[in-house]
Amino acid sequence: MWMEVGPLSEHGRLPLLAPAELAEAQRVLQERIVGGKRAGQPFQASTADGRLLGPFNALLYTPELGLAVQEVGEQLRFSGTLPARLRELVILTVGADSVYEWYAHSRVARTVGVTEAELEALAAGGTPETCDSREAVAIEVAKALPGEVDAACYRRARAEFSEAELVELSVLAGYYRLLAGILATFAVPAPR
Q1: ∠ at Cα 189 (187, 192), nearest 5°?
Q2: C-alpha span between 4 and 117 (Å, rounded)
Q3: Which of 72, 96, 124, 159 is most buried, by the most CB atoms less than 10 A from its CB?
Q4: Phi and psi angles of residue 94, each rounded to the nearest 5 degrees, phi first
Q5: CA–CA separation, 19 and 50 (whole Å)
Q6: Residues 182, 128: Cα–Cα separation, whole Å
Q7: How far is CA 183 from CA 12, 97, 112, 126, 129, in A?
Q8: Which phi and psi (to 5°) does residue 58 adopt?
Q9: 8-58: per-residue pLDDT in tens?
């Protein structure tokens, strides 16, 4: 049974940390997020006064861990080997039930060629009919995780992906499930 625990503001359960109030380690993390490769994304990641939104506000509460999480995400998004469209299809597959993740990555997905019809299929838990074989098997693997990827699914995945690509795909799905868990724990909404 769902029970509301803790105060819920328009930004979720955690207060948004103001840049002027951050300790040094928190400032370093904030700068890596807003001044790094994530800058200029097609979604709102901070308030007008510089407070971080989404999962990154929560990560400021544990800046050393937050820095490691941020670096994994930056590597996956901006230096990974998977095509951008495939990457976003996987992110939206694992993040379909996360309000903020869907808000942010549906916008990113549109910039890499994901259509409205494809977004609707993903939001409904399906695989868009327009996906090529690599995209379809990537979505299949993402849906199987964090459970077991059965032998037939693994064979299909290995027919489409190298071992290194399949490791990256698994880490990508796991990373965005991690973020979805943070967002769910702290009831982080999409910006209004």
Answers
A1: 155
A2: 34
A3: 96
A4: -80, -20
A5: 6
A6: 27
A7: 9, 10, 24, 22, 29
A8: -60, -40
A9: 578 899 999 999 999 999 999 999 999 877 777 888 889 999 999 999 999
Task: Write the Ramachandran bin of 104: left for phi over 0, alpha for psi from -120 to 50, otherwise beta.
Answer: alpha
Write down the H helix ranges in the chain: 24-34, 55-60, 63-78, 84-94, 99-111, 116-123, 133-144, 151-160, 163-185
Q: Residue length, the chain? A: 192
**Cβ atoms within 10 A of the Cβ of 78, count?**
11
From CA 26, how far away is CA 33, in angstroms rounded?
11
| 66 Cβ neighbours under 8 A, 6+ residues apart | 29, 56, 58, 59, 60
**Domain 81-185 class?**
mainly alpha
Where exactly are the structural domains of the chain? 19-77, 81-185
Cβ burial of 155 (10 Å; 0-12, 13-18, 19+) is: exposed
pLDDT tens track for 84-134: 999 999 999 999 999 999 999 999 999 999 999 999 999 999 999 999 999
